[in-house]
From TrEMBL:
Lineage per the UniProt record: Bacteria, Pseudomonadati, Bacteroidota, Flavobacteriia, Flavobacteriales
GO-annotated molecular function: peptidase activity
Signal peptide stretch: 1-18
Protein's GO biological process: proteolysis
Residue ranges occupied by any AB hydrolase-1 domain in the UniProt entry: 33-290
Name of this chain's protein: Alpha/beta hydrolase
One Gene Ontology term, aspect cellular component: membrane
One Pfam assignment: Abhydrolase_1
Keywords from the named record: Hydrolase, Signal
Family affiliation: Belongs to the peptidase S33 family.
Organism: Flavobacterium chungangense
InterPro entries according to UniProt: AB_hydrolase_1, AB_hydrolase_fold, AB_hydrolase_sf, Peptidase_S33
Amino acid sequence: MKSLLTALFLAISLFAKGQNLYIKTYGNQTNKAVIFIHGGPGGNATLFEATTAQKLADTGFYVIIYDRRGEGRSADPNAKFTYDEAFQDLNSIYKKYHLKKAILLSHSFGGLVATLYTNKYPQHVSALVLAGALFSQQETYNHILNTLQKKYSNDAEQLKRISYVENLDKKSAAYRKGCFELAGENNFFKMPKPTDYSKNLYTEYETGEFFKTNIRNKNAPLLFYQNEKQNNIDSRPFLKKIKTNRIPVFGIYGKDDSIFSLVQITSLKNITGSNHFAFIENCSHYLFVDQQDEFINQIKKWFH
């Protein structure tokens, strides 16, 4: 009786946590399901939801948006910020919407979540899409710091800052934060020549309702590095294994997403295959806003 009550409590607890997730759907439930997995740790899906979710759904997909537990609009003071916890969130979505399979459309850090999930639950994934997604973390950090060392070769003050970050514990939240802060300050995430259309999308987002819920949990990265044993991972071995399970892997990246080296991108393209890879001109990290039409058309081309 005691074990039965314990099991029941755990089931109710997981169910309750699943219901606490911010989840929104767009499109017809009879269409192919696409689950968007946002960046982080500590991020949210507001930018994608505000700009792209409905437009992608309008092309014939059932688009599911959610914020991971403890991130964005899914407030949870007890969140652990581990990959297993993120898997529980995804499994609760599959259960809630009676999904057998879905396309996982993953952005930035979400690419690691999606890849590891697909590796663990291949039966739930019809295709894995890496959209400006991380896949070899240490190479990305090395590339950011090496690029900036060359840029500031004659600037002692900047080189001192770069050196400070470089000498931090590479398995720490502080190291990750330092690398991405330097990248942000140097416009690594911005498209070089914003189009009128992309500028309008960003402006509409920043002045609209979704931006008011652009909640960032600053403690999430710290807790992630504290609680998750797998950090600074290279997910390419997992991607190769996923392909052997006959799950197609796709990559779509901006040519001006400066957190990735060409060597990294080439290595990923070699895994996906050229027919499953798109490299978009005048486009950086937020490619679904930078070049929205091309992004959506590419997803349509692959899955319709």
